[in-house]
């Protein structure tokens, strides 16, 4: 009987090893995680529903955590008040939690990142601030898209439409400033630039925002990048509509705050939608999956259950949902590897007299490094797609939808993927199975309806009303006025050099305001070296004219490529041509013809002296011999004297 019992025991051990591992790796009954959110915001409300929905699914799934219940402690914080948000975040860190989901805002994320580094508590954050990196904050885990990639998508969109300058409007906090820095770098890589940056505080008044928009309307760029939050962003569109800045020639590109707001709010007022017609916005790309469909199908009941019935799921909801699941799978591996949850006091933290923050209550998570390592290794398909981290700590395959606000909703006109770095109408997940094709010729988007309800792509710039004019010096010549001269009648500057300059300006994709300033009196040619010196001393911004490029001048100023090269030339006076029969006399003067004739007579006399004794043609009466001398002399001008030849029959 004992032998049979032992046999059954051995067989059960061999046939069910996973069950034994699970029992041996069972964790504590309850594990607490934390979350820092702003409940009265769209993102905060969506994130709370996503966290609680994920916990319900995890705790009811027998394949993960082996009976350990995951619970969350959520702290409501104020993202608009940096000081108050910091205090609330530090107070929450007195709670012993093994990980934190959030915060949603960059300011508090920076502060909490310093704290979790000391306490060794992984921070599962969906903040998009590009300066939050694992290099500075090893325990910071970004579970959403980074602004580094979002701004690369914006720059690709600007470059695709052949715009070279943009105006950036942003909120003056960590999120806004760092996002625009990332945008500036991305545009520079595309040989574009931000021509005008303007920021505003979070507590800006309506009059201040209107003044800001008026200053933007004076600028030459009509491509406006709006990087802020939903509260201020919607105000901007409303005021821009009142200022007629949502019509033809304007381009508005909003970052993903707009798509997050429109996706999450089921009932957006009609006046808000009508005020942003033609706007382009971005949305982090979420591929279709079974888990995504399941979350969408039960979202309505979950949002009612947790008092956010007016909110729908958006991209941040998918990211937060997967953040909790990633933490659950990491904890499962953590317990399987023998991990234990324990906390110890930090000797660096102690209370000062009269201090209200109980710093000594903050404890170090002893095995936080091990849990962080397991989080970095997770690899599963979640509601937001493939959840896997690359070497830099970001989610793999970041991508964005390019969305056009039109009518009562949104229309996807294309995608941007970091895999190829290009804009395309093909979904990003269809590209991952192929080698990346980075040829710009492959870029394509569907037609966009721009502000003003036009399908024609805006030029993106206008001549600014308050731009500083370039002072361009032009030589006021006395001679060779065809190159450049001042018209005494109209005072305008004209000439070949001016025509070349204006044609070159017409090829530029941005405006240049300029003013011609004549240099010289017009009664004599000006001193060109002095003109060069005036450009060098900034009295003139540039100079245009028949200015020779010499070695000494290139030392101090830059020249364009030469557009006139004379080479080796011969100068001759222009005279009226004689068209009579005596025109052949024109090459020589009368004196030259007389000398030439005298020399021919002398030659004739010399020939007569030598020939008249032996040649019968030079003999006869004196008059005949004189005629022979003259005839021989002048015949040399018109006849070619050759030796007579006899043709012999062949």
UniProtKB/TrEMBL annotation:
GO terms under cellular component: membrane
Ionotropic glutamate receptor C-terminal domain ranges (all copies): 471-634
Keyword set, alphabetical order: Glycoprotein, Ion channel, Ion transport, Ligand-gated ion channel, Membrane, Receptor, Signal, Transmembrane, Transmembrane helix, Transport
Domain of life: Eukaryota
Family matches, as InterPro entries: ANF_lig-bd_rcpt, Glu/Gly-bd, Ionotropic_Glu_rcpt, Iontro_rcpt_C, Peripla_BP_I
Name of the featured protein: Glutamate receptor
Transmembrane segment boundaries: 590-610, 622-643
Lineage of producing organism: Eukaryota, Viridiplantae, Streptophyta, Embryophyta, Tracheophyta
Gene: LOC123143237
Signal peptide (UniProt feature, chain positions): 1-21
């Amino acid at each position: 009987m004992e032998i049979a019992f032992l046999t059954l025991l051995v067989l059960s051990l061999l046939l069910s090893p996973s069950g034994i591992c699970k029992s041996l790796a069972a964790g504590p009954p309850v594990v607490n995680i934390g979350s820092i959110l702003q409940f009265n915001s769209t993102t905060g409300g969506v994130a709370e529903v996503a966290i609680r929905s994920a916990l319900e699914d995890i705790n009811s799934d027998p394949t993960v955590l082996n009976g350990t219940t995951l619970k969350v402690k959520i702290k409501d914080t104020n993202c608009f008040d940096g000081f108050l948000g910091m205090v609330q975040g530090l107070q929450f860190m007195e709670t012993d939690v093994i990980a934190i989901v959030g915060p949603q805002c960059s300011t508090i994320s920076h502060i909490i990142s310093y704290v979790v580094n000391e306490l060794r508590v992984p921070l599962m954050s969906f903040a998009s601030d590009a300066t939050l990196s694992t290099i500075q904050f090893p325990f910071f885990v970004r579970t959403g898209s980074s602004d580094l990639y979002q701004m690369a998508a914006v720059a690709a969109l600007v470059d695709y439409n052949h715009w070279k300058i943009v105006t950036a409007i942003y909120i003056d906090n960590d999120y806004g400033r760092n996002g625009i820095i990332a945008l500036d770098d991305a545009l520079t890589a595309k040989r574009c630039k931000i021509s005008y940056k303007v920021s505003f505080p979070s507590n800006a008044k309506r009059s201040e925002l209107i003044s800001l928009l008026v200053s933007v309307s004076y600028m030459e760029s009509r491509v406006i990048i709006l990087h802020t939050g939903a509260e201020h962003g919607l105000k901007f569109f409303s005021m821009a509509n009142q200022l007629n800045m949502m019509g033809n020639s304007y381009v508005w590109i909003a970052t993903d705050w707009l798509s997050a707001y429109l996706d999450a709010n089921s009932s957006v007022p009609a006046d808000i939608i009508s005020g942003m017609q033609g706007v382009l916005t971005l949305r982090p790309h979420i591929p279709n999956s079974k888990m995504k469909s399941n979350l969408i199908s039960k979202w309505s009941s979950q949002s009612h259950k947790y008092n956010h019935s007016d909110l729908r799921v958006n991209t941040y909801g998918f990211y937060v949902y997967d953040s909790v699941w990633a933490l659950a799978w990491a904890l499962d591996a953590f317990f399987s590897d023998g991990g234990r949850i324990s906390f110890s006091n930090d000797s660096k933290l102690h209370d000062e007299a009269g201090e209200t923050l109980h710093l000594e209550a903050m404890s170090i998570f002893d095995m936080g490094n091990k849990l962080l390592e397991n989080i970095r290794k997770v690899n599963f398909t979640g509601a937001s797609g493939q959840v896997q981290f690359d070497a830099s700590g970001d989610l793999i395959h970041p991508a964005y939808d390019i969305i056009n606000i039109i009518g009562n909703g949104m229309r996807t006109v294309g995608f941007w993927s970091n895999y190829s770095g290009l804009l395309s109408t093909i979904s990003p997940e269809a590209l991952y199975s192929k080698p990346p094709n980075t040829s710009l010729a492959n870029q394509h988007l569907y037609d966009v309806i721009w502000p003003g309800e036009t399908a024609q792509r805006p030029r993106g710039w206008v001549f600014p009303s308050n731009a500083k004019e370039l002072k361009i010096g032009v030589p006021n010549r006395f001679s060779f006025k065809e190159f450049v001269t001042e018209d005494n009648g109209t005072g305008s500057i004209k000439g070949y050099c001016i025509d070349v300059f204006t044609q070159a300006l017409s090829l530029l994709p941005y405006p240049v305001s300029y003013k011609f300033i004549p240099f010289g009196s017009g009664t004599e040619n000006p001193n060109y070296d002095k003109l060069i010196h005036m450009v060098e001393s900034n009295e003139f911004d540039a100079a245009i004219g028949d200015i020779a490029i010499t070695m000494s001048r290139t030392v101090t100023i830059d020249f364009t490529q030469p557009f006139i090269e004379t080479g080796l030339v011969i100068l001759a006076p222009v005279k009226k041509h004689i068209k009579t029969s005596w025109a052949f006399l024109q090459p020589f003067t009368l004196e030259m013809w007389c000398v030439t004739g005298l020399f021919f007579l002398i030659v004739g006399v010399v020939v007569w002296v030598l020939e008249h004794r032996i040649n019968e043609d030079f003999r006869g009466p004196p008059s005949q011999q004189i005629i022979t001398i003259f005839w021989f002399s002048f015949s040399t001008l018109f006849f070619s004297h050759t030796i007579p030849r006899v043709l012999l029959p062949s």
